[in-house]
Amino acid sequence: MTTHSNTIEITVSEAIDVGRRLDQFLSDQSDITQLGLSRKRIQDLIQSENVTRNGKACTKQTYKTKAGDVFVVTIPPAEEMTIKGEDIPLTVLFEDEHLIVVNKPTGMATHPAAGSRTGTLVHALLHHCKGNLSGIGGVERPGIVHRLDKGTSGVMVVAKNDIAHQHLSQQFKDRTLDRRYLAICYGVPTELSGEVEGNIGRSPKNRKKMAVLRTGGKTALTTYKVTDLNQDYGFSLIDLKLHSGRTHQIRVHMTHIGHPLVGDPTYGRKRNLPNDFPSEGLDLIDNLGHQALHAYKLAFEHPKTGEFMTFTHGMPEDMQNIADFLRLKSSV
Fold it and tell me: What is the domain count for the chain?
């Protein structure tokens, strides 16, 4: 097996490799896996005539290999994204050739969309990882496998190659990783720990909002535990775990049980606080400008090494200031 700058030559020389599907055979080759090319990417290369057999294009991924077959895989340079990277500071918690773990700040959108054409996490990663992205589906881009709302801060993992992207995406799909959040909520739940279950879909009253629906929507389950509370003024610091990944799930579920998140511009109905509530506290809440929600923990299996890795990061300063004022203590 010989490797060149943009081609890999592979000869079928082992009896165990004879009679295998071409896409399976190529996907198992060490020089292929080292480049982070997934089986789906290999299939695309076969179909686009980037794989030859004994000097001729082989476009059938189900072709059965024969002894002595010589395959040459040509890997085109990853296409550049139409958007350009931006030199935006990132808090990097971990990075290797397969993935990067960052703490996304409040106010940063995950990816470009209406209203967020620049300054997103994708822009920052394109700059930070330039030259180290092998291409997701043939495009030089970071592999976003999960998202946080613009107003939510916290730990995120991003893939750098096809295999890592597919492996991490499957973990999110199978719910085998652990995602934990901290939220400052109005009121104190009657049960200090429990679960909220209710299908989430577009609100029939306001299509820009999500809601718990009696019929339709998608199943959603959130478990919670009150880690500290302020009985004097009626606030809770709540640790939450997602067992599904619906849009605005925590914000919708906590509002549904009567404990919306402090500062939530969409779902957080501002509560009437006691007349003696200090003006300092009012200023902290009024100036927050986003929901008091932070993804403080993410644990997952490394797609290459198989190691189960855990990352944590404390709350952003503005959210921490409210917690401190309310004397709500977190172990993070």
Answer: 3
Using the 3D structure, point to which of 27, 52, 74 is the last residue of a domain.
74
> pLDDT by residue for the chain (332 residues), tens digit each?
444 447 888 899 888 889 999 988 898 887 776 666 777 878 888 988 888 999 888 989 899 999 999 999 887 766 666 678 899 999 999 999 999 999 999 999 998 876 678 899 999 999 998 877 766 655 656 888 898 999 999 999 999 988 898 899 899 989 899 999 999 999 999 999 999 999 999 888 887 889 999 888 899 999 999 999 999 999 999 999 999 888 899 999 999 999 999 999 999 866 778 888 999 999 999 999 999 999 999 999 999 999 999 999 999 999 999 999 999 998 88
Residues 124 and 187 in one domain: no
Cβ contact 196:256 at 8 Å: yes
Tell me which of 28, 56, 74 is where a domain ends.
74
The residues annotated with a catalytic role in the active site are 149
30 within a domain of the structure (yes/no): yes
Query: Which domain does 216 fall in, by range?
Result: 178-325
71 near 24, Cβ under 8 Å? no
How many CA within 13 A on the CB side of residue 290? Answer: 18
- 183 and 261 in a single domain? The answer is yes
Token reading at 35: 């480049």
- Cα separation of the two ends of the chain: 49
Does this model's pTM top 0.70? My answer is yes
